[in-house]
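Practice problem 4.
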């Protein structure tokens, strides 16, 4: 009998005739089992198609970030938020705004996001959208 190996989330990691695969859980499957690893999840009774959630990029280019802000209708709000800052925070923000990349974990992104009404999940979605734009 062939074995399928699933991770802790039930996602298929591999299959074959091996008896062990690191820490993954083993499930017996028919010899003709040919599902693609990473694309299927075992629900405990049957296999269901699986699409992995997109990961939030650690950084995006200035171009990607600004275009994503524009598409989200937040570009002008960011400019206004920077303009409203007092010195020296305004100058720091301008330096960050002109950086070649925007880091998701940066305090600048968090504070500016909050200033324009974006919470953490919305900022994550914005970074994912920015990464799709291409470099």
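Answer key:
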């Amino acid at each position: 009998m062939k074995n399928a190996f699933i991770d802790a989330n039930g996602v298929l990691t591999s299959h074959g005739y091996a008896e062990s695969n690191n820490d993954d859980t083993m499930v017996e499957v028919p010899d003709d089992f040919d599902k693609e690893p990473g694309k299927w999840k075992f629900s405990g009774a049957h296999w269901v198609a699986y699409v992995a959630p997109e990961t939030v990029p650690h950084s995006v280019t200035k171009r990607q970030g600004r275009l994503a802000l524009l598409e989200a209708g937040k570009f002008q709000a960011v400019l206004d938020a920077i303009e409203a800052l007092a010195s020296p925070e305004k100058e720091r923000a301008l330096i960050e705004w002109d950086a070649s990349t925007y880091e998701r974990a940066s305090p600048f992104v968090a504070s500016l996001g909050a200033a324009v009404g974006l919470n953490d999940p919305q900022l994550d979605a914005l970074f994912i959208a920015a990464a799709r734009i291409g470099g």
